[in-house]
């Protein structure tokens, strides 16, 4: 009897606790309740506003707001309690330790480079955005001048490479192809990325990937690249290739092997064989479509605006070169052959 009474008391207590905590738990799991206010600058102000569309595409959104702001209650902000903030190292300890050993750690914290409400993986961020983070502290003209002391065409290199390609131990590099806008038939000096809205207008209601992936098989062949490059309807666009890392390191140091031009300018490296078409999404992130292996090495038909001396090639130009070489050999070989064939006649004439 005593046991039954005890069990009833326990069950009643559990039910009361469940009823009491259910609203709070539901609130804690629902980031949408937070974004009802924080998604509107008119309610929380510019400093506290969070772009809902951009946040929803991040890994942090999957965890929920309360994973980092555990002190927030259902009565926020009326309860007057300051919101807690999780330290990045609580989840990213290996990255935090690696970064702490770098020179950057003395001058910048995680949030100086990364907006936690826009945290994306390296493949979902364009090479241009990667460099934009660096340029917040490292003035571009100064960097061009500094690199120009030893690097030919420093401005071009800085435009075509994410800084972390050379200044970190990031690995597994691939070529990421971005759609860039032309302005008045000329390439814009800043190599400005075409926005999702601009690409959607050009696509005319089709998914923007079908500007290049015409058969919609989620794979871009060399033939499709040729059709895109030759299509007059795409004259306001171009493809720009950038060597981007698959995984990002946070040690931020100059790599000795990056001083060697052959790291990029050599035929056959795996990084120059694998490429992806990176397309901007409505939320500003990027999705990738696989491109035929080795396509970026064909400078004439694949990506004619992506050219690296010693790396890219053109089958058509190879044939032209062979014709020129053969033509150059015709004269000395022909002349020598005629001299041999007519030597007897010349001897008779000499006598």
Folded structure, characterized:
By secondary structure, this protein is an alpha/beta fold. The chain has three domains: 2-86, no CATH class; 120-313, no CATH class; 316-344. Helix content is 41%, strand content 10%. The chain has a five-stranded mixed beta sheet. A hairpin with a 5-residue loop joins β4 and β5 (286-291). The longest helix has 28 residues, at 2-29. The radius of gyration is 30 Å and the shape is elongated. Residues 1-29 and 185-189 have low confidence and may be disordered.
Characteristics of this structure?
351 residues; alpha/beta; 3 domains; 5 strands; 10% strand; disordered N terminus
Provide a compact summary of the structure.
The chain is an alpha/beta fold and 351 residues long. It contains 15 helices and five strands.
Report the helical percentage. 40-55%
Number of strands: 5
Number of helices: 15
- Low-confidence parts: 1-29, 185-189
Shape: elongated
Average pLDDT taken over every residue: 80
Largest sheet: 5 strands, mixed
Tell me the β content.
Answer: 5-15%
Helix/strand-derived class?
alpha/beta
Distance between the termini: 143 Å
Question: How many domains make up the 3D coordinates?
Answer: 3
How are the strands of the biggest sheet laid out side by side?
A: 2-5-4-1-3
Question: What string, H for helix and E for strand, traces the elements in order?
Answer: HHHHHHHHHHHEHEHEEEHH
> What is the C-alpha radius of gyration, as a whole number of Å?
30 Å
Topology:
Elements: H1 2-29, H2 31-38, H3 41-44, H4 52-56, H5 59-63, H6 93-100, H7 110-113, H8 127-135, H9 140-148, H10 154-160, H11 163-166, E1 171-181, H12 196-203, E2 219-220, H13 222-230, E3 237-247, E4 275-280, E5 286-291, H14 315-341, H15 343-350
Parallel strand pairs: 1-4, 2-5
Antiparallel strand pairs: 1-3, 4-5
């Amino acid at each position: 009897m005593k046991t039954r009474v005890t069990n009833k008391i326990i069950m009643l207590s559990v039910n009361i606790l469940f009823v009491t905590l259910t609203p709070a738990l539901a609130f804690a799991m629902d980031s949408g309740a937070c974004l009802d206010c924080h998604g509107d600058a008119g309610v929380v102000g510019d400093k506290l506003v969070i772009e809902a569309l951009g946040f929803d595409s991040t890994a942090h959104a999957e965890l929920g707001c309360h994973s980092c702001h555990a002190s927030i209650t259902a009565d926020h902000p009326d309860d007057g309690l300051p919101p807690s903030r999780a330290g990045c190292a609580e989840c990213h300890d290996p990255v935090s330790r690696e970064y702490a050993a770098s020179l950057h750690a003395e001058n910048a914290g995680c949030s100086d480079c990364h907006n936690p409400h826009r945290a994306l993986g390296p493949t979902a961020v364009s090479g241009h955005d990667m460099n934009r983070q660096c340029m917040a502290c490292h003035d571009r003209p100064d960097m061009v001048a500094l690199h120009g002391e030893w690097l030919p065409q420093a401005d071009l290199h800085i435009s075509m490479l994410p800084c972390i390609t050379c200044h970190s131990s990031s690995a597994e590099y691939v070529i990421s192809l971005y759609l860039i806008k032309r302005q008045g038939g000329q390439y814009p000096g800043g190599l400005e990325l075409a926005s999702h809205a601009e690409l959607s207008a050009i696509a005319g209601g089709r998914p923007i990937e079908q500007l290049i992936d015409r058969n919609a098989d989620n794979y871009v062949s060399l033939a499709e690249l040729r059709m895109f490059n030759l299509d007059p309807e795409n004259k306001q666009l171009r493809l720009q290739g950038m060597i981007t890392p698959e995984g990002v390191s946070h040690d931020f140091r100059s790599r000795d092997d990056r001083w060697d031009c052959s790291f990029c300018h050599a035929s056959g490296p795996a990084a120059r064989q694998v490429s992806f078409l990176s397309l901007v999404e409505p939320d500003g992130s990027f999705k990738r479509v696989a491109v035929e292996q080795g396509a970026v090495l064909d400078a004439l038909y694949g990506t004619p605006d992506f050219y690296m001396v010693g790396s890219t090639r053109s089958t058509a130009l190879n044939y032209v070169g062979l014709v020129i070489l053969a033509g150059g050999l015709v004269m000395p070989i022909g002349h020598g052959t005629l001299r041999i064939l007519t030597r007897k006649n010349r001897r008779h004439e000499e006598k």
